[in-house]
Amino acid sequence: MSKTILYIATSLDNKIARKDGSLDWLHAIPNPNQIDHGYNQFLSSIGTCIMGKNTYQEILGFGVDWPYLAINSYVVTTDKDFKSSTPNTFIVSNNLTQLISDLKQKKEKDIWLIGGGKLIAAFMERNLLDRMILTLIPTIIGEGISLFPEIAKESKWTLTNVERFETGLVNLTYDIQQ
Questions:
Q1: Interval 131-166: pLDDT, tens
Q2: Fewest 10 Å CB contacts: which of 5, 43, 78, 122?
């Protein structure tokens, strides 16, 4: 059975985006050797990605071709009129728990929760995450969108891997305690 994994970059002050949703700070760290910080290896293990509407629109705003052509993408939104503009992209507006349960049963590869903050909180409160891979960016951005915005439910995690890169970034992998 597949796992649901949050793989996301976060600042030292636990922000995943600026207040306006901008991700410009992610590319401010020098990376002369073009290290991918484990991204391609991670992506090869993914069969499905899921994201909130704002994250979907932010990715579209990068001005590149849709990066997830080979996998099904789900966009979670309460906007009943929202339409996707990318291939293999489906809109989800209700029953998130059932969707994840169905995907886990059907897929051999893992499910990537890309973001954003509200959707991460919804996954946490419904016990839908199995693993978190947090790429810690050595930057403090101040005001912004929190990685874990006001989650009301406590959960416990075990650190299972630490990977340090010459760029100063660190990948921290946590698995949920059962």
A1: 999 999 999 999 999 998 777 688 999 999 999 999
A2: 78
**How many domains is the chain built from?**
1
Structure token digits, residue 67:
């990066």
What are the backbone dihedrals phi and psi of residue 124, each rounded to the nearest 5 degrees, phi first? Answer: -65, -45
Predicted confidence band of residue 23 (pLDDT cuts 50, 70, 90): confident
What pLDDT was estimated at residue 21?
84
> Is the pTM here over 0.85, yes or no?
yes
Angle formed by the axes of helices 96-106 and 117-125, nearest 10° = 80
Q: How far apart are CA 7 and CA 115, in angstroms?
A: 8
Strand partners, 49: 73, 112
Domain containing 168 equals 4-176
119: domain CATH number is 3.40.430.10
